[in-house]
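Researcher: Batch entry, complex prediction.
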Amino acid sequence: MTALRKVMKLMLIEKKDIILAIICGFIAGISSVGLFAASGYLISKAALVPPFYTLIIVTSMVKLLGLIKAGAKYGERIYSHRATFTILSNMRVAFFEKLEPLVPHVFQKYRSGDLLGRVVGDVESLQNLFLRVVYPPIVLFLVFTSTIFFASFYSMAIAVILFLGFLLTTIVIPSIFSFRQAKINGRVRQERGDLSSDITEVMYGFRDLKLFQQLQTKQAQLLTQSEAYINEQKQENINKAYSQSLNSFMTFVVSWFVLAMGAYLVTNGTLEGLFLAMLVLISMTVFEPAAPMAVFPIYMQESRDASTRLYDVVDDPDIQVKQMKPTVEHLPVGPPGIAFREIQFSFMGDWRTTIPNLSLSIPAGSKTAIVGASGSGKSTLLQLVLKLQQAQKGNVFWNDQDTAFVSREAIWEQAKVVLQDNHFFYDTIRENLLLADDELTDEQMNAVLAEVQLGHFSLDDPILEHGENLSGGEKQRLAIARAFLKKGHLWILDEPTSSLDAQTEQVIYKHLFERAKGDTLLFVSHRLNGLEKMDQIIVMDHGEIIENGTFEELINQQGYFYQMKKLEESLL
Amino acid sequence: MQKLKQTVWRHKKRIYLLVGLTFVLGLAIVAQAFAMTNIVDGVFLKDQSFAAITPSLFVLLLFLLVRAGSDYMSKRIGVSIASEVKRDVRRDLLTSYVGRSISVAGKGQTGKKVSMLLDGVDEMDSFYSQFIPQVMQSMFVPILALIVIFTQHVNSGIILLVSAPFIPIFMIIIGLRTQKKSEEKLEKLASFSGTFLDTLQGLVTLKLFGRTKQQKDALEKSSLGFRDTTMEILRIVFTQSFALELISMLSIGIVALELAIQLIIYESISFYTAFVILILVPEFYTSLKELGTTFHNGRSSMGAAQKVLEEFEVKDETALWGEKEFPQLDVAPTIQLDNLGYTYPDSGFQLRAIKATFQPKQKIAIVGASGAGKTTLLHMLAGMIAPEQGSIKINEQALRNNTEASWLDQIAYISQHPYIFSGTIGENIRMGTTEAVDEASVHEAARLAGIAPLIESLDHKYETKIGEAGRGLSGGEKQRVSIARAFLKKPRIVLLDEPTRGLDLATEKILQKSIEKLNETATVITVAHRLHTIKTADQILFLEKGQLQAVGTHASLLETVPAYRDMVTIQQGGK
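Model: Structure tokens for the complex:
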């Protein structure tokens, strides 16, 4: 419920359109009632042969009301839909904004296809919240009150019937249906979300699935899921049709009662026969917009589910980033010294503690390599500096500044990063490089491409989704090029050249060290060759630093690093 | 369009039922008007007693019930047809996606495909569930009402007849415009989905480059673009409704006025006739107007269907496979590369004249600088890419004469980025084979791949859940899962793409052992950077810029090929 309230709050930003829609809706409703009342009165009066001018007045009223109704209806539709779709657009963006700080944590719990399903599908289904849940009852209520008030001048009894009919069609029947709907509800959305994430996964894993010939099985699974989804949809639609038909039948019944009561009153002499036709037509018209109220509970429930599903993710306590309000928005320009103090870290919901207790300091302007077995916590150290992960205990310092108080943007502004998996967007190489800096000229970008041995690439070459058209080595080099082009004095490189052949790697290292002169450089290396130049080598195992020193010192120590080196040589 | 109509005719029986129900509905509407008039006329002008009209009241109630009932039934039938059509289309579309070759499937955005399969298919719903039943009602009810009105009072009939043609004309003009727009709308939604998914997954990168704000703006723009397209469609629809509303309201007014004049001045008709007509006229227009609203839904539905159907037309190279069933290999085969050549259509990169023969159980290393064409060659061997020149022969038989499935049964492919599905580790290993396997074989495969100790150390062991794209496993661990799959499959040909990428030394050693183990029964073809792999290879294919420079053992290449020698020296740390 609170989720729905949050959605409503977002909705109210479009106050102006909402009010306009309600006003237009009311005018349209009331003029339509008036139109039929006047026509009924007109022919009844005509049957009694009245003076001609009465006829003229009534007829012009009929025409005028017709015009007003058509105009008001148009306005109502435009305003209500404009409001709705702006609201939806606001919501997508709002959801993205809320989601943004939760990345990458959010992926540990939610699949990206699922998130896509929520942002596209669930937000889309919220369009009914305003169009069918919030504003029709308001308009309906206004129109009914006025009509009942009008009818009460002619016959109290008929006014009462109209009132009861109003209660029946807008409150009683919808409530009964909301009860029915509660049983099947939520399942449609759920099925849709599941289907969406599973399709996404199959598409991503397409190659492996194909090679392992699992596509048929997966396809069968998806079809079963689709079947379940369609059945739920069908159930819902049938329920919708049923309640709509029942409600429209009820409105007929109310008109029938008005007719019966009116006829009785006329034979009784309490109601002038002249008004009977008018009242019958009024009752038929006023209930016309009441019929859609039958589906009110369905949309209500749907909106509630959709908003809950949306806010479930962003409010999920499992993936919240516990962050103090940063007080430092900018860090001084220049190579920083980095220090880790008594860090303890484990991944959310993970089975292992990645780092039990670690302290380390990296002097400003130094070049540090981190080596160790896979899963020893090397990458985690880098992510802690970047605040992509948060330590459960301990602090990371940027010079003398505890980064807990520094905004993440301030750190990123200073960092030149190559991660193990680098994302490229579905766009050209130019656009992907321009991420680093908007001001870059083509010459600058081409020069850097040449440095990373990608001189044969044109800036206009397209990159497919996930860099599908690039080899592993090309992706790495492109990521390095992007880091070269970015401003900052802290290099954070996580196995940046692991897919490259040794030859290319050497050339790139040469350029890298030229560019990183004077900067602080943190470098997770997959191989031990070429580390002689580093100021400091950190050897990690199971989240602990087991050795620390220059290449020479470590070799002379004849410890773990020495063993690794021996192993590497034996492999050559 | 043609296809859309065909799908309707698959449900012939239901359509006839729908026609019948519409007929009943129309009759009920007319009967209701007469019954009502009877009552009003009875008490208003004929001074009948309440008792006298009571039977009419109950007859009226019956008509109302029939009206609501037939309306409900036709809606229900519409829903059933829609469900079946959606099921069929989604199945066909999925089959088409799944049947695509890897090179074709790699193109295009996943988000777009997902959106096609979900939104595209769902949008087709309203065509069947609303549009078709409504079209029937709107064709039949007004005609029936018009006939009845003509029999009652010709002038009113003429007024309706004059105003009515405006309605279909409006709808045709506008409907055509909305269809194009709604195609655009689906396109916009699909592109929004694509942008969103891409943004979401690249969010870490965006953050690091301080680009979140810009991307948010792009997303907002994309989202607002979608709104504007939607509004454009709606504006057309609403203008159309406005025009229809105006026509109907004015016509009703004119009819009422004409009736009044006839009543007073000429006294040529009775109140009874006037009232019947006054009740029927709104029914006439309401039906037409409702057609207007559903017409737009139907049109957008058709637009969506169009987009979905276009997906079926994507050209593919699956046809390049033959019909023969590849015989199950019991021992590793001889593989011949006969002058293979391939040119990438996008980049123009060429792989030329690759000639080699691999003996059973040999260890083959494909070597060369990045971009030399190693992976392309491997893809060709796996059957993911069809060679443009030359052919691959397995035991003297051309590979491409066989069916794709029977060939894939023979090989294991271990890629740089093995895909790990959300599910348990056990399930992920079991994916290696299409056959049913027992727990023990899975454990054995994990043991051989060197991942068993890790799995055993977990609380839930083989039942441990791993997330989308294998989050929670390191690169080396993913690779080992992938190798475990291969052990489970027991193939005679193993294809490896840089298997030792980014792994630490201990893991590398484990993997090498595992691969040697696989090599005992299979030919192993590796795209390799590591000297260890290269040195022990029986044959090395040394590629440079898409050309096969030399074939031979490590020792012979060191001696005869200078470029090869340079590469190796650098690998060993020399300058």
